[in-house]
Amino acid sequence: MPKFLSCLPTKRDLSDESLLAENGNTKVIKGCTFCDVSVEKGFGVIHEDDGLIAFHDRTPRATIHLLIIPRLHEVSSVRQLTKAHLPLVRSMINVAHSLVPESPPPKMGFHIPPFSSVPHLHLHVFSGEHTFIGKLKYPITGNRRQSEKGLGWFVTAEQVEHTLQNGRTVGLGRGSS
């Protein structure tokens, strides 16, 4: 897909063997930019453990703008998460809190496809002031309690947790399904 169309959804069937990496690992997809993150590949990696990798976004939209991804290709987007993925989401949030200052409180969330540039689950973590574009690209919408998702294309980590805990999935609509 041309780079300028990278925000459009792709239909990748993770059971398609032509997409699997040569090492035979069914959780690493050929051609997925985030399945091959490393310092050697030019990523500003600041944290690695058995399950997650954190690195600086290549086009930061705040004073600090990190991405946290699962090492393996668990799901392509936040829309595919289920209640079973809560431990993964919580571990991503915990890593985020360990990497950025608590004041001001960090903003964390996921883009909801088709407004996502890389089809590999990734948590955006922001600390400090947003750029003008960052304010537009990463809006937070929700109800008065902020635990319910609003109509936007960016959903906070807290909203994802709340949605999954209630057995629903994340989508573009209010509260999701």
From TrEMBL:
Record carries keyword Membrane: no
PANTHER family hit by this protein: ADENOSINE 5'-MONOPHOSPHORAMIDASE HINT3 (PTHR12486:SF5), APRATAXIN-RELATED (PTHR12486)
Alphabetical list of InterPro entries matching this protein: Histidine_triad_HIT, HIT-like, HIT-like_sf
Record key words, sorted: Hydrolase, Nucleotide-binding
Residues covered by the HIT domain: 33-138
One Pfam family here: DcpS_C
Record carries keyword Nucleotide-binding: yes
Superkingdom: Eukaryota
Name under which the protein is recorded: HIT domain-containing protein
